[in-house]
Design a protein that fits this description.
The complex is a heterodimer. Chain A is α/β, with parallel strands linked by helices. Helices cover about 40% and strands about 15% of the residues of chain A. Chain A is built from 16 helices and 14 strands. In chain A, helix 9 links the parallel strand 7 and strand 8. In chain A, helix 5 crosses helix 9, helix 8 runs parallel beside helix 9 and helix 9 packs across helix 15. The longest helix of chain A is centred in the N-terminal third of the chain and has 16 residues. By secondary structure, chain B is of the alpha/beta class. Chain B has one domain: Phosphohistidine domain (Glucose Oxidase, domain 1). In chain B, helix 2 links the parallel strand 3 and strand 4. In chain B, helix 2 packs parallel to helix 3. Chain B is globular, with a radius of gyration of 13 Å. The model of chain B has no long low-confidence stretch (mean pLDDT about 95). The chains are: A alpha/beta, B alpha/beta. At the A-B interface, helix 2, helix 3, helix 9 and helix 15 of A face helix 1, helix 2 and helix 3 of B.
Chain lengths: ~425, ~130
């Protein structure tokens, strides 16, 4: 099916809104043709993952759009950059790269994007309406937006996210089409121990397993008795989207498109049912750790996706009045940092040995100390997935309680009091 | 055999690299070296640069295109990409590279069941999407 552009869309491609918007429209149209989309649809908002520095070409791309007079046509929040502009944490990026990363962040501001610098924009006031079409990037933000908010987005990669935001349109295919949001696989957790399902490691471990099992299909989790809370769904989505190509999941009785199981299945029989067993959970948990030596850690990191205020409440309760022997990096957005700064909470955390990392995080830019053979402990399925490739650190996976006890005592501690 | 052209680009002749597991370019491929950096990937440590890269699937981060653009501009890109199905997130890297004035490798679509024939072979990729062992 050939792509048909409306008169307005064709005019933008022809330069009526300037060369920046024309380039953006060309990129959107080329993608639509690649994916076989018949048309473009207007979008209500965008979340932009493109402002993270991977090399000079990304900076030059954003500057080319800005030089062409490009401006976002809809609300566009920014995902993390490579620099902590709040000054909370230090970064080992060499001077030249730091300069290019800063130029990139500045170019996206020039394009009219909001300096939210967070991978959890949905907890920073950007929550598109149920059923609205949006163009979101960053795998965890995409999956949360689709699954928990029920807005419609594909997994927008770097460049396409800003191209959609500037043109105001997106290719009509994939998860924008209601019929493609039907769950075809049931991920049945009803056979698992309720004590495990109620524990804080349940959702990252389940998410990691779900991502590997489901790949890019749409699935529905069945057998959950009560809403696990937004932070649990955030952790599940992030882990699933880093282990697989998950863009949308449903949880029967919890997420908006799955009031009951049959609704998520669009009242059709599933193509597959995965009965999750205790052995699968144990295997999934083991796979999150890569370190050979479980007796040593060099640092602890939490906050992927970025920590909410509720998660900082829990962190403070777990630390209590104690001091940490090892640095605990707590990654968050400036929306949460502003709240921590109101009552001296930031100072207290830092005095205990926490390093708050804002605007960025420890797996996308070199913040962790450069130590040969180092090991990172984390409670994040996403950090566990990406830390070895991006930071060189081996990983030991544990709950937030285990992470805090380990940071306090300076060695890995498991089965700490929850 | 002939494959569907997903993104037009340079014809080539190069050794095939058939990945045996899906890969996330971001975090999975080092943009400065072209080496597979994901320690859990079966081909960890192998270079994708200058190869006809056969991808059974792609996973993970939405920054894959940025890594591919960086590889193209650094001269470290694969010689061609053969995908089981079109992946907008990854192939955007080629579309943008063309907007930025770079010469890009071709991206083709082919059923991954055919990838097995390519192991340890050298492949010629024609501008019409033909794939010929050489």
């Amino acid at each position: 099916m050939a792509l048909v552009l409306s008169a307005e869309q064709q005019a933008i491609a022809n330069g009526v809104r300037g060369e920046g918007a024309a380039m953006a429209m060309r990129i959107v149209a080329a993608t639509a043709r690649l994916m076989g989309a018949p048309s473009l649809i207007p979008i209500a908002s965008a979340h932009i993952d493109g402002a993270l520095y991977h090399g000079d070409s990304g900076t030059l791309f954003a500057e080319k759009l800005a030089l062409g007079g490009g401006k976002v046509a809809v609300r566009a929040t920014l995902n993390v950059g490579s620099l902590d502009l709040t000054g909370c944490s230090n970064n080992r990026l060499p001077t030249r790269e730091r300069g290019m990363a800063r130029r990139m962040m500045d170019a996206y501001r020039t394009l009219g994007c909001e300096p939210s610098w967070t991978c959890a924009p949905y907890q920073a006031g950007h929550r598109p309406a149920l059923g609205s079409d949006v163009a979101w990037g960053e795998s965890n933000a995409v999956v949360f937006c689709n699954s928990v908010l029920g807005a419609h987005t594909n997994r927008y990669g770097d460049f396409l996210d800003i191209a959609c935001a500037i043109s105001g349109f997106a290719p009509y295919y994939g998860l924008h089409r209601p019929e493609n949001r039907r769950a075809t696989v049931v991920f049945d957790v009803s056979g698992l121990d309720p004590a495990f399902l109620g524990s804080e490691v349940a959702w990252p471990i389940l998410g990691s397993l779900y991502g590997r099992e489901i790949g890019d299909a749409v699935g529905v989790v069945a057998g959950i008795a009560a809403h696990p809370g937004e932070d649990a769904l955030k952790a599940f989505g992030a882990a699933s989207a880093s282990a697989g190509a998950v863009g949308l999941f449903h949880v029967a009785g919890v997420t908006p498109e799955a009031p009951v199981l049959a609704t998520a299945l669009h009242h059709q029989p599933p193509q597959a049912v995965i009965k999750v067993t205790a052995e699968m959970i144990a295997d999934s948990r083991r796979r999150l750790s890569t370190a050979h030596d479980m007796d040593r850690i060099d640092a602890v990191a939490i906050g992927s996706p970025h920590l909410s205020i509720a998660e900082f409440d829990r962190l403070e309760a777990l630390i209590g009045k104690r001091k940490l022997k090892l640095t605990l990096y707590a990654c968050t957005g400036r929306h949460t940092l502003a709240a921590l700064e109101k009552n001296g909470r930031r100072e207290a955390l830092e005095a205990a040995g926490v390093v708050i990392v804002a605007d960025t995080c420890v797996v996308v830019t070199p913040i962790l100390p450069d130590i040969a053979g180092a090991v990172l402990m984390t409670n994040s399925g996403k950090f566990a997935h990406y830390a070895p490739g991006n930071t060189g650190y081996g990983v030991i996976y544990g709950s937030m309680a285990e992470c805090v006890e380990s940071a306090v005592l300076g060695r890995p501690i498991f089965e700490a009091a929850a | 055999m002939k494959a569907e052209i997903l993104v037009a680009g340079q014809p080539t002749e190069a050794p095939a690299l058939v990945l045996t597991a899906p890969i996330s370019f971001w975090g999975g491929v080092n943009p400065k070296t072209g080496l597979i950096a994901d320690v859990r990937h079966p081909q960890h440590g192998v270079s994708i640069s200058g190869k006809v890269l056969c991808l059974p699937g792609t996973i993970g981060s939405s920054s894959a295109a940025a890594v591919l653009l960086e590889l193209v501009s650094a001269g470290l890109a694969p010689a061609a990409l053969v995908l089981h199905e079109p992946d907008a997130i990854l192939l955007l890297g080629l579309i943008v590279a063309q907007e930025m004035g770079h010469v890009t490798p071709m991206a083709l679509r082919l059923d991954r069941a055919k990838f097995g024939e390519f192991v340890d072979t050298k492949l010629a990729i024609g501008s019409d999407g033909s794939i010929t062992p050489s």
